[in-house]
Amino acid sequence: MIAVLQRVSEASVRVEGEVIGRIGAGLLVLLCAEKGDTEAVADRMLAKMLKLRIFNDAAGKMNLSVQDVAGGLLLVSQFTLAADVSSGTRPGFSGAAAPDDARRLYAYFVAQAQKGHPVVQTGRFAADMKVALVNDGPITIPMRMTA
């Protein structure tokens, strides 16, 4: 799985003009399932994400996790993170999981996040989404977990 975590002051996602997910301070997570990904990979990624110390403590050091600060999670599926741009000028997406597998893993990731974190919002899988955010820092962390 590939994820891009953005520490945000606020973030939202719209589909057809309607806000379907919104958080205040927390993490906007762009999430991509790759071929061969499993629930175990998703579990490891979520565990790392929830404990990653990228929020400031009282001294201004990045020493707190999204759990420590009771921040929100906005989880947005984004298969384009699997883009291969190594040849030509048109990205290839052959590394992305098949749509049915990706949908299943995204739904699993969301369900697990909801079990382990109090504030979880989502985008809509395979929808044309408009994502708005105020990146805090800016802090943007790419993550990749493999089987």
CATH class: Alpha Beta
**Sheet having the most strands:** 6 strands, mixed
Count of distinct structural domains: 1
Number of helices: 2
Listing every helix as H and every strand as E from the N terminus to the C terminus, the arrangement reads: EEEHEEEHEE
The CATH architecture assignment turns out to be 3-Layer(bba) Sandwich
Structural class: alpha/beta
| Estimated radius of gyration | 15 Å
Question: What is the rounded distance between the termini?
Answer: 9 Å
Give the full name of the CATH homologous superfamily: D-tyrosyl-tRNA(Tyr) deacylase
**CATH-defined topology:** D-tyrosyl-trna(Tyr) Deacylase, Chain: A
Number of strands: 8
Question: What is the overall pLDDT average?
Answer: 97
The residue ranges in which pLDDT falls below 50 over 5 or more consecutive positions are: none
Describe the structure.
There is one protein chain. With 147 residues, the protein is α/β, with parallel strands linked by helices. The chain has a single domain, classed as 3-Layer(bba) Sandwich (D-tyrosyl-trna(Tyr) Deacylase, Chain: A), CATH 3.50.80. 21% of the residues lie in helices and 39% in strands. The chain has helices at residues 39-51, 99-116; strands at 2-15, 18-23, 26-32, 55-56, 62-64, 72-77, 120-122, 129-144.
